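Please, structure for the following, as tokens.
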Amino acid sequence: MGDPLASLLVLFGLGFLGANLGVLYDYVQHRRRRALTVLAWRPPPPAFAALPIVVSVGLGVVIVYKLVVLEWPVDRLFGEAMMLAYYGYLYPLSRQVQRGFFTSGIRLDRGFVRWPSITGLTWREEPSPVLIVVSGHQQRAGRLAVPPEHFGEARRILKDHIAGDGLHLDPPTLDLGRHDRRDDV
């Protein structure tokens, strides 16, 4: 392709194809996990909830214009089509994935962590409680915004997993010998 704009749109299309596949995989995993729900909720709508709708309508108009008026072949619309699929369908679909506690682990704001992988937990107070989860040997951290009405139940679930030896947390950095691991929650 000699057109730099067309090459850029193909790169955008490849990036959005990857994002689309990631969202689809996440949604399929959510559908499989639904029967194993202990405590879950849908995330609150984002601040600019209408923006993906506006972007998808704009992309739809651009695609129709390029097909009808400019008479471009369909294969030159790959980038725009992948963006339209993401903003028009897959992003709203990703908002249906519930966050919370499942029998096999915790669904954080950005991904799922299995119980055996969790090495650390802490709570942070923002406008609502936020559970910070540290997982894996790389010590990656993720967050889960817990609605205030589910806070008590979330703490109980975590305490039950710790007491039942289903959750083994790393000892704190400065352990003075008087640490009760059930208090980690």
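The chain has two domains: 4-94, 100-184. Residues 63 and 77 are 7 Å apart (CA to CA).
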